[in-house]
Amino acid sequence: MFGFMMLLRWLPSPGRHSHGGVTAERHFPLTAVVAHGMCAGATVLLVVLVVLGRM
């Protein structure tokens, strides 16, 4: 959940709480964010497959 929250903070939004400034999360390059998300998704998928395989 923390990673998903960081992704939402990384995405630009014109929300009510935006200050127009650049947050520290916005300095991450797109390739790093996408690669990290793909690795996280693959990890979750592998864990689910292992758990289902033991049933």
- Biggest sheet architecture: none
* Percent of residues in β-strands: under 5%
Output the number of helix runs: 2
In helices, the fraction of residues equals 55-70%
Description of the structure:
- With 55 residues, the chain is an all-alpha fold.
- It has helices at 2-10, 30-53.
- The mean pLDDT is 80.
- The chain contains 2 helices and no strands.
Give a short synopsis of this structure.
The protein is mainly alpha-helical. It has two helices and no strands. The two termini are 26 Å apart.
Set down the secondary structure blueprint.
Elements (H helix, E strand, L loop, with lengths): L1 H9 L19 H24 L2
Tags for this entry?
mainly alpha, 2 helices, 0% strand, elongated
